[in-house]
Amino acid sequence: MASFQIPAGLLAERWGERRLLAAGTALTACGFIAAGAWAGGFASLLVLLLIAGLGSGVQHPLSSSLVSKAYETGARRAALGTYNFSGDLGKVAVPAAVAFAATVVGWRAAAAGYGVLGLVAALAIVLLLTRLATGGASEPAARAPGYAANGWGIRDARGFRALSAIGMIDNATRTGLLTFLPFALIAKGSTVAGVGSALALLFAGGAIGKFVCGLVAEKVGVIRTVVLTEAATAGGIALVVVVPLPVVLAMLLPLGIALNGTSSVLYATVADLVTVDRRSRAYGLYYTLSVGASSSAPTVYGLLGDAVGVGPTLMVVALVVLVTIPLCLALRASVAEPARA
């Protein structure tokens, strides 16, 4: 999924987001259908899921590009926050539905059925975006002056570097906390079932945060919102280490809001720093950097955890989050404050 985001952004400029988003969704759907119908062992299942993941790689950069273009002069952060919130709802509802179906008809039929729904979604993407007259390939005449030499379309390199660094730290913090939180909770006396409930609280807060923080950024601005959420994240992670279990459980919902809420604000800000004609590839670059940091953080923090223990490692995670605050100072000159009404 991560490896195809930049190619997806580049291909979208030639083929259009609409066509490529539908094709990627269909490829993912076919991967699940094939997994349910033909997977004969671990190796074949792995290959088919890899194919499905490649198709999913188009979703983040192209969907974000489409939403940002639709709200070029409107409440872009609120719109992307709503989009991210709906994605989190899907992450909760779909696995539960497929798991239930697997208990009734078996995992193969459940996977194939999910794939069929994906094909229906691919068709719906084409029909709906065609009706809205959006997501088509850019005509050369409509592209920005200097298109051929425009590179990634980044209008403000300093701002984009600061934004990408904030996004990488933010994503690495999320996976770093999720890696060590269960160990911290068990060390405080939680049961395994209690860990599951705690994570559910954190995820619920994350979904709320993606929606709410987009709205907040529209009112108070990007920089204030990011500083607020990142400072709250750092403080919350530090408290996880030092306070007793009942207090930790009580604060997981608001911690989830801060932990995930920043992402909606950052995603929308990408569009402020790049030209419209190259927005898909810029989103592909941003998501690749962010997801790369997210996937590598558990390994890096895991090595540190082996050396110093869970508590000190979480404290390091909290301290690293605070690096985003001076990065916000570098980003401040690149974004309008306050945010658009």
β-strand percent reads: under 5%
CATH topology value of the largest domain: Growth Hormone, Chain: A
Output the radius of gyration: 21 Å
Distance between the termini: 35 Å
Judging from the principal axes of the Cα atoms, what is the shape?
globular
The level of helicity is: over 70%
Mean pLDDT across every amino acid position: 89
Q: Return the structural class.
A: mainly alpha
Number of strands: 0
Ranges where pLDDT stays below 50 over 5 or more residues in a row are: 140-150
H/E element sequence:
HHHHHHHHHHHHH
Q: Give the CATH architecture of the largest domain.
A: Up-down Bundle
| CATH homologous superfamily heading of the largest domain | MFS general substrate transporter like domains
Commentary on this structure:
This protein is an all-alpha fold. Helix content is 81%, strand content 0%. The chain has 2 domains: 2-136, no CATH class; 154-332, Up-down Bundle (Growth Hormone, Chain: A). The chain has helices spanning 5-15, 17-38, 42-56, 59-70, 76-105, 107-131, 157-187, 192-220, 222-242, 245-272, 279-308, 310-321, 324-332. α5 runs antiparallel to α6 (107-131) and α5 (76-105) packs antiparallel against α8 (192-220). Residues 140-150 have low confidence and may be disordered.
